[in-house]
Design a protein that fits this description.
Largest interface: A-C, 36 and 36 residues
Structural class of chain B: alpha+beta
Radius of gyration of chain B: 12 Å
Radius of gyration of chain A: 17 Å
Strand order of the largest sheet of chain B: 2-1-5-3-4
Order of helices and strands of chain B: EHEHEEE
Largest sheet of chain B: 5 strands, mixed
Oligomer: heterotetramer
Shape of chain B: globular
Number of strands of chain B: 5
Strand content of chain A: 35-45%
Distance between the termini of chain A: 22 Å
Order of helices and strands of chain A: EHEEEHEEEHEE
Structural class of chain A: alpha+beta
Helix content of chain B: 10-25%
Number of strands of chain A: 9
Strand content of chain B: 25-35%
Distance between the termini of chain B: 42 Å
């Protein structure tokens, strides 16, 4: 199941839902809010999502992962709202009989989620400026808005 | 021929429109045409080639046919994760 | 730090120690005790370790990972003692600015740990038989001891 | 020339020896020679090529020189993880 969450993620509880005696490997990914991006000092950030489509597209990515890799289970959650440094923005958990499939699938899910989910991020810098990431256009440069990629890992 | 649509705005488009959603009546027959109409009216900074469209909570091609009562969302470049 | 632990692993506590505002990605691997291996039904298992050398070799693997990949931190723990189905046998956690390095390093560490740490596993089967994994020799076959690979992922 | 060594046993070797460790005096000058001596005496099923050696908590080559008082461990095929 892929969910959009408005409150802090609880990785331990999320992982517990994956417990299964057929699984020999569990790989998880968490994206954390870093204190810098493209040379700017980040103070906090906001995520906004088009929730019904984000959950539907997230679920589609999980189905694709189950088709491509020999999994026992896969799940994901993405935060929305205001996040501070060190907060978890996204969690992906995958179980499989063998670790190779679990690693490959976890990576597939987070790569696809970053590229496809209708979720947007605005960074708040220590300087007081803010920017919608990936949405800079010509003319924005005078405002010092970085065109950079996503700020979590 | 015109149709009445429900348009929802997110992120930079929500800010530039100053609204989260609105009902509007338009002659635009496709998401591409509707985006150009709205961009001209509200000064959206993103060009049409950087925006995807969704209708009724599903991604659609920019030249899909819009129908009466459709819920339309324009999706700026995403930045999840 | 790489540790050998005689009591159940606490992944949430282990991961908390990795928190760092420079890190944008955290990848963890857990190996769980599965209910089957090479066609036999497993009831439980025991891990035994040569502790000082296992911890020293584990630490060496973490150092290698930090040299090969752009990491913020890396840690690992391996259980010894009697484990039941679903118990975590091993935990590896890695943080990095970017997720590619975190995935690659986590996989490197678990691959090397499985190949190099002086740790042994005896499986207890539902049939009542037991076997030291990877230690079968000619002549054992009459006893039905499987020569199979490791049972977690 | 003989030397007194401390030998520690793990896993299948511990079971086949029936001991976790012992002090012994041997003429074996290398881990390889010592393993063949112990294997002949105790009927270890693992052949020497499947066992690694450690001396004083560090991996060593099978033909390393053993010194007086060394702590020796023979390492059966590992199965961590």
């Amino acid at each position: 199941m892929f969910k959009i969450a408005a409150s802090p993620l609880d990785p331990a509880a999320l992982q517990k839902e994956l417990l299964d005696e057929r699984a020999g490997a569990c790989v998880t990914f968490e994206g954390w809010v870093r204190n810098h991006n493209e040379g700017q000092s980040v103070e906090s950030l906001e995520y906004e999502a088009y929730v019904p489509l984000a959950e539907k597209e997230g679920e589609k990515i999980l189905v694709e992962a189950r088709e491509k890799f020999a999994l026992v289970a896969a799940a994901g959650v993405h935060r929305v709202g205001h996040l501070r440094l060190g907060d978890a923005a996204v969690w992906v958990g995958v179980t499989a009989e063998h670790r190779e499939a679990a690693f490959d699938a976890c990576r597939y899910i987070i790569d696809e989620a970053k590229a496809r989910l209708p979720i947007w991020k605005r960074e708040h810098y220590v300087s007081g400026a803010t920017a919608w990431i990936n949405c800079a256009t010509r003319g924005d440069h005078s405002a010092g808005i970085p065109p950079g990629p996503s700020k979590t890992g | 021929m015109t149709r009445t649509l429900h348009v929802q705005y997110f992120a930079i488009l929500r800010e530039q429109r100053g609204l989260t959603d609105e009902k509007l009546t338009t002659a635009a027959a496709t998401p591409n045409a509707l985006y150009e109409e709205l961009r001209a009216r509200h000064g959206f900074t993103l060009t049409g080639d950087r925006v995807r469209a969704a209708v009724n909570d599903a991604f659609v091609a920019g030249d899909a046919a819009l129908g009466e009562g459709d819920r339309v969302v324009f999706i700026p470049p995403v930045a999840g994760g």
